[in-house]
Write a structure and sequence with these properties.
It is globular, with a radius of gyration of 15 Å. It has 155 residues and is mainly alpha-helical. The chain is built from eight helices and no strands. Helix 4 (54-69) runs parallel beside helix 5.
């Protein structure tokens, strides 16, 4: 699944409007224009489509964390440059942080999306690559999680 699709899914699941999305990017010190945002939210077959690179997706996710949870005391005004390699595990981890989700919350969100996952399987998704218990987060799993976030009751 392309980053553009993930960005669009997150926008829909969290019911974010364009102004909020622009503010989220701004939280990391990276301002983008309305036309760039619109291009990132398009599908590959639409005119004016711009691929959402890993750094751009990273800025959005870091901004979402800052937007939802606030800046930590003593942290710099601008976020550090995101990783050039941004896999589904890292996206899931950043969404978990941004939404302040605990293990039980994650299991319930997956359950809401029709995915049964144990706490042991869940912890494997958050391990470092190379760890013998590491499990890769598939597109299907990440997509299910994002759908589950959209289906869960709003506070």
């Amino acid at each position: 699944m392309a980053n553009n699709d993930k960005l669009r899914s997150i926008k829909d699941a969290l019911s974010l409007d364009d102004a909020t999305m622009l503010q989220i990017f701004k939280e990391t010190g990276r301002e983008i224009g309305q036309s760039a945002l619109a291009a990132f939210l398009k599908t590959a077959d639409e005119d004016d489509y711009i691929p959402c690179s890993n750094p751009i997706m990273g800025f959005f996710l870091d901004g979402l964390i800052l937007h939802n949870r606030g800046r930590q005391e003593g942290s710099p005004a601008q976020a550090a440059a995101p990783l050039a390699e941004l896999n589904n595990n890292a996206i899931l981890k950043k969404l978990r942080i941004a939404l302040d989700l605990k293990e039980d919350d994650l299991v319930n969100i997956f359950k809401t999306a029709g995915i049964v996952i144990t706490k042991h399987e869940l912890s494997a998704l958050f391990r470092k690559p190379g760890n013998r218990h590491y499990k890769e987060c598939t597109d299907q799993l990440l997509n299910g999680f994002i759908q589950g976030v959209g289906l869960r009751p709003k506070d």
